Amino acid sequence: MRGERPWHGHPDRPVTAFVLSGGSNQGVAQVGMLRALLERGITPDVIVGTSAGALNGAAIATSPTLAKVDELEQVWLGLRGEQLFPGGAWKRAWNVLRRDDHLASNDGLVDVLERSGPAEAFADLEVRLRVVTTDLDSGDEILIVGGPVMPALLASAAIPGIFPPVELHGHRLVDGAVVNLVPISHAFAGPTSRVFVLDVSDPMGSRAIRSPLDVAVRAFAISRDQRFELELQWVPDGVDLVVLPAPIDDREFFDFSGGEALIKQAHQLALQALDNYAAGLPPPRRRWWRRQAVGGEPRELRRSSVAGSGTRVRGRAR
Question: CB of 129 within 8 A of CB of 141?
Fold first, then answer.
């Protein structure tokens, strides 16, 4: 950890953390979720983000206002696949043949990050920010909480094999989602009373498998989602954890079209979930994990996933 120090909330409200998952182009839905949270008067004391969630989280940590959400929405709606992944299929294929460590430069990613308007340094942020990255050499999870913001975001969003690793703080860093897709544990490092999870990473969603990259992305997401499921079982006593629902997003990995509709859907789903949370209503269940035995019937592996529509966990999950 770099430059970490404890945080304190506002004396008139609970200490609040926002946790923003990775999710590549699915990160657009977090814009609608952030709008709903701020419209309901819920502002963060600390933000934890990984990959696309780090980009969105840094923008709000710079200015936790609806005006900033408007700016962030325009950034996402202006995104195109060829902007983030320049060079096209032939260039990416050539990079594979010449054994480079990435398929695309991160120039387009730099441009997107600059347009999202984060503060220059962590010390300049209005809200404390924690950016999750992965050490490519050791496999360690590296949490960046100080220094310049832009390199930290570039590292957290450096999808292995697609974008180049980022040399920072003596580490060779890549996408934080490699080790921690939904980094809720970092939200419990301070005196947190409630955690709102903006999870758009559902590996079991309806996104079609159309390419080898889709297979790899989904396989890794399934593996990383297991950590989220395990950490949900260890929510500290006295902490409310609310997982906001994400809209169905079946777009291809490189497809950034249709963002406006996804933002609107996420906004409406989040508003309803927050209203249910405020009213103390139990959340609906989203999915069950099952294990298939060869030659036998499926059997339940464990309790239903709580990463569902407005899921609320109070205290330690059972």
Answer: no
Q: Which residues of 276-309 are buried (b: 16+ CB within 10 A; e: fewer)?
A: bbeeeeebeebeeeeeeeeeeeeeeeeeebbbbb
Distance of alpha carbon 301 from the chain centroid: 26
CA-CA distance, 198 to 184, in Å (whole number)? 10
Q: What is the pLDDT of residues 153-208, one digit of tens each?
A: 999 988 887 888 999 888 999 998 888 889 999 999 888 999 999 999 865 555 66
User: Which amino acid type is present at position 50?
Assistant: T
Contacts of 48 (CB under 8 A, 6+ apart): 17, 18, 19, 20, 57, 129, 130, 132, 183, 184, 186, 187
Residue 195 near residue 243, CB atoms below 8 Å? no
User: pLDDT above 90 covers what percent of the chain?
Assistant: 47
**At what angle are helices 29-39 and 259-279 packed, to 10 degrees?**
40
With helix as H, strand as E and coil as C, how does the chain read?
CECCCCCCCCCCCCCEEEEECCCHHHHHHHHHHHHHHHHCCCCCCEEEEECHHHHHHHHHHHCCCHHHHHHHHHHHHCCCHHHHCCCHHHHHHHHHHCCCCECCCCHHHHHHHHHCCCCCEHHHCCCEEEEEEEECCCCCEEEECCCEHHHHHHHHCCCCECCCCEEECCEEEEEHHHCCCCCHHHHHCCCCCEEEEECCCCCCCCCCCCCHHHHHHHHHHHHHHHHHHHHHHHCCCCCEEEEECCCCCCCCCCCCCCHHHHHHHHHHHHHHHHHHHHHCCCCCCCECCEECCCCCCCEECCCCECCCCCEEEECCCC
pTM of the predicted model as reported, rounded to 2 decimal places: 0.81
For 258-267, what is each residue's pLDDT tens digit? Answer: 999 999 999 9
